[in-house]
Amino acid sequence: MRIKLDEDLCMGYANCVVQAPDLFDIDEETDKAVVLVTAPSSEQLPAAKAAVQACPAMALRLEY
Ligand code: SF4
Q1: What is d(CA 19, CA 7) in angstroms, rounded to the nearest whole number?
Q2: What Pfam family does this protein match (any one) (predicted)?
Q3: CB under 6 Å to ligand 1: residues?
Q4: Which domains does the chain carry?
């Protein structure tokens, strides 16, 4: 499973970072999210799902 970020949709709200700080960060230059771990482990999966659901811009999705 991989985390996909659509940078065109990302508005830099950082909800993903709040939900999963190990998986996401905000690029201070672009003000957009950066995916730190593109292929999360099974332990990281709940946080990844929470981040996807928390993104108001629908910029994140999980690809199976
Ligand atoms: S929550 Fe969505 S819009 Fe906000 S920084 Fe993360 S990916 Fe971007």
Answers
A1: 18
A2: Fer4_15
A3: 5, 10-16, 33, 55, 57, 59-60
A4: 2-63 (3.30.70.20)
Cα–Cα distance for residue pair 38/32, rounded to 1 Å: 16
Which amino acid residue places its CA nearest to atom 8 of ligand 1? 10
- CA 64 / ligand 1 centre spacing (Å): 20
